[in-house]
């Protein structure tokens, strides 16, 4: 019998109007954090998507590099094959969560945004293009693309992507952004990329402003 994927949970916020959500934003946090780490961004995103539901699940595994928090996969070994194996293990769990939320809120993929930070960006970039139906968009902060060579044979949809990195990031070097953009562009995925000067491994107002413009360009189509 195939093992059942674990179910993940985290904080969620519904539209303040009390109306049924018209959009869904799923936040994917980074290593050692939890769903509370990004749910606060909903205050910014709700200015653009006032009728959106926001959900921010805890990653499925306890962090093995800290006494608290969660991880999508271990980063104790950061060679490409180990990280790819880790992403592949966690991908069905995130996919299941996305499907559950779509059903729960009676929404479709084209109304859904994935927003990731660091390891959450790696998960978002892996999962979304391999889904049969395209999500509305992917926003990735301080992350990178894992499994680009594998994606060439497994891409199924082409959601637009926004990547924001900092040139002072000592955990995920900003040079990796170009590698992701080149790979995704070559596969037909539309990508916007920004490298913010003086920014480390974090999200700042510039990144949020880029996100606002990115989302507006999609919902105004």
Topology summary:
Blueprint: E1 12-13, E2 23-28, H1 36-39, H2 42-48, E3 52-55, E4 61-62, E5 70-71, H3 80-105, E6 112-117, H4 119-127, E7 137-141, H5 148-154, E8 161-166, H6 175-186, E9 191-196, H7 205-219
Helix pairs in contact: 3-4
Characteristic key phrases:
about 220 residues, alpha/beta, Rossmann fold, seven-stranded mixed beta sheet, two-stranded antiparallel ribbon, about 35% helix, globular
Describe what you observe in this structure.
The chain has 221 residues and is of the alpha/beta class. The strands form 2 sheets. The chain has a 7-stranded mixed beta sheet with strand order 1-3-2-6-7-8-9, sandwiched between helices. It is 36% helix and 18% strand. It has a single domain (21-219), classed as Alpha/Beta hydrolase fold, catalytic domain (Rossmann fold, 3-Layer(aba) Sandwich). It has helices at 36-39, 42-48, 80-105, 119-127, 148-154, 175-186, 205-219, and strands spanning 12-13, 23-28, 52-55, 61-62, 70-71, 112-117, 137-141, 161-166, 191-196.
| Second rung of CATH, namely the architecture | 3-Layer(aba) Sandwich
Q: Strand order of the main beta sheet, please?
A: 1-3-2-6-7-8-9
What structural class do helix, strand and pairing data support? Answer: alpha/beta
Q: Kindly provide the radius of gyration, computed on alpha-carbon positions and rounded to a whole number of angstroms.
A: 16 Å
Mean pLDDT: 95
**Helix proportion of residues, in percent?**
25-40%
Sketch the major β-sheet.
Answer: 7 strands, mixed
> Roughly how many Å apart are the termini?
45 Å
Strand fraction equals 15-25%
| Corresponding CATH superfamily | Alpha/Beta hydrolase fold, catalytic domain
Give the helices and strands as they follow along the chain. EEHHEEEHEHEHEHEH
Overall outline: globular
Give the class-level CATH name. Answer: Alpha Beta
Please mark out the parts with pLDDT under 50 across 5 or more consecutive residues, or reply none.
none
Task: Give the helix tally.
Answer: 7
Number of strands: 9
Domain count:
1
CATH topology: Rossmann fold
């Amino acid at each position: 019998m195939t093992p059942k994927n674990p179910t993940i949970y985290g904080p969620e916020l519904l539209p303040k109007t009390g109306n049924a959500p018209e959009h869904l934003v799923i936040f994917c946090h980074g290593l050692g954090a939890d769903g509370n780490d990004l749910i606060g961004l909903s205050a910014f995103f709700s200015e653009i998507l006032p009728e959106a539901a926001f959900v921010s699940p805890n990653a499925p595994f306890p962090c093995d590099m800290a006494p608290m928090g969660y991880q999508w996969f271990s980063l104790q070994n950061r060679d490409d094959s180990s990280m790819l194996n880790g992403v592949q293990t966690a991908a069905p769990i995130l996919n299941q969560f996305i499907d559950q939320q779509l059903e729960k809120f009676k929404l479709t993929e084209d109304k859904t945004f994935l927003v990731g930070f660091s390891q959450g960006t790696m998960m978002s970039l892996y999962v979304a293009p391999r889904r049969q139906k395209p999500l509305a968009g992917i926003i990735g902060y301080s992350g990178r693309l894992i499994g680009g060579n594998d994606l060439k044979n497994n891409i199924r949809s082409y959601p637009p992507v926004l990547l924001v990195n900092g040139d002072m990031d000592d955990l995920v070097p900003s040079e990796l952004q170009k590698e992701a953009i080149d790979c995704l562009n070559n596969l037909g995925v539309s990508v916007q990329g920004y490298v913010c000067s003086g920014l480390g491994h974090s999200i700042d107002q510039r990144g949020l402003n880029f996100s606002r413009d990115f989302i507006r360009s999609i919902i105004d189509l």
